[in-house]
Amino acid sequence: MLNDLLARNLAWSEQRQAQEPDYFTRLAALQAPEFFWIGCSDSRVPANVVAGLDPGEVFVHRNVANVVHSTDMNLLSALEFAVEALRVREIIVCGHYGCGGVKAATEDMPHGLADHWLEPIRRIARAYAVDLAQEPDMEARRDRLAELNVVEGVRRVCETPILQNAWRRRADIRVHGLIYGLKDGRLRDLDCSIGPGHFEKEAAE
């Protein structure tokens, strides 16, 4: 299996160089992505592939069920690097329908360490229990919960000192929430984008 992977890599590398001789030289010289992507670890949702982007155009952090934990130093380190060093201006939190992590969060059975990781999703499920109950079946409820998890993730990213400090410096950064459909390969905008001045407007209201 490993030999097959290496052979595929060699074929890909040779094809890329044949199509664009300076491709790897250009990538090696500079990392200047436009997007920072916080997504799910699910192997069916690779960020640059589903977004139609080339390597180098998106900086990526992935974890089980794209949960934004305020104590996740891995995510926070990547977010800080994206904002402070790479100067990205578009941050995307992307979930997907049919998410195994969301499914696990709704099951009454043990999942080991994943149960601790998925606790924020269970909290969202409790907070929106009445709304989720309006969905026609369990699959629809889980898909709606996956959307709500993205919306919550967008807000939690925006509440980090990293984003708050960047906005105080008047950095033009926007955070968006998307959901990916495994069954049709489409990204959908959840219309929960937050940009500079959002919290000031909320306070004024």
Question: Which segments are poorly predicted (pLDDT under 50) over 5 or more consecutive residues?
Answer: none
Shape: globular
Most strands sheet: 5 strands, mixed
- The CATH class of the largest domain is Alpha Beta
How many H/I helices?
Answer: 11
Return Rg in Å: 19 Å
Number of domains: 2
Structure report:
The protein is an alpha/beta fold and 205 residues long. It folds into two domains: 1-30, no CATH class; 34-204, Beta-carbonic Anhydrase, Chain A. It is built from eleven helices and five strands. It has helices at residues 2-19, 23-29, 47-50, 73-85, 100-105, 113-117, 119-127, 129-132, 138-159, 161-168, 198-204; strands at 35-40, 58-63, 90-96, 174-180, 187-189. The chain has a five-stranded mixed sheet. Strand 1, helix 3 and strand 2 form a beta-alpha-beta unit. Helix 7 (119-127) packs across helix 9. The longest helix has 22 residues, at 138-159. The model has no long low-confidence stretch (mean pLDDT 94).
Secondary-structure blueprint:
Elements: H1 2-19, H2 23-29, E1 35-40, H3 47-50, E2 58-63, H4 73-85, E3 90-96, H5 100-105, H6 113-117, H7 119-127, H8 129-132, H9 138-159, H10 161-168, E4 174-180, E5 187-189, H11 198-204
Parallel strand pairs: 1-2, 1-3, 3-4
Antiparallel strand pairs: 4-5
Helix pairs in contact: 7-9
Sum this structure up briefly.
By secondary structure, the protein is α/β, with parallel strands linked by helices. The chain is built from eleven helices and five strands.
